[in-house]
Amino acid sequence: AQTVTQSQPEMSVQEAETVTLSCTYDTSESDYYLFWYKQPPSRQMILVIRQEAYKQQNATENRFSVNFQKAAKSFSLKISDSQLGDAAMYFCAYRSGSQTSGSRLTFGEGTQLTVNP
Amino acid sequence: GAVVSQHPSWVICKSGTSVKIECRSLDFQATTMFWYRQFPKQSLMLMATSNEGSKATYEQGVEKDKFLINHASLTLSTLTVTSAHPEDSSFYICSARRGGTSGFIANTQYFGPGTRLTVL
Prior knowledge:
The complex is a heterodimer of chains A (about 120) and B (about 120). Chain A contains no helices and twelve strands.
């Protein structure tokens, strides 16, 4: 079974600074998808960024980018120019590319990000 | 976009009663919907996966007779908590996935805003 580990329960960053959230996963598959979701105090899960495993190029969405290291099974999220609205719980998630594995997401434990003004 | 709604957003009920939560995909057809439970400051726990027109697949440890899931159409899934008890109080979140078998469109889940259930 796949597992996702987020080793940082809490992180903090100064407004306008850069922060990196860590995520590692364990899988024997070669075809899969990785996601970062944020959950602000409203508790609405919001998709931040996603990466297909077969793509070597790191995904980027505005101020959010990932460092995808497939061999190391690492998928970290970098937030540049942090804003107060970035404060949230961030979840890393794994989705198998195999249709026989179903379409479930495996979530990490989450990292609570605080942005200090 | 890919918008998922849930209703109600908040419900209080008496112990022993049943509560129905609706999950709707507003601008796309969802062949698969998922129901999660989340306790404060914890990650999401998958309860069940439902495919339109089929019986839901429940995760180990989830009582299917207590948490009834119906996915009657491509835009609507319902979760009914039967004979609710205080220990069922939690935050319930649904998500939906478009059809297809490959690519991001088929493999991304979009989440509803959640329903807070309090059982007195």
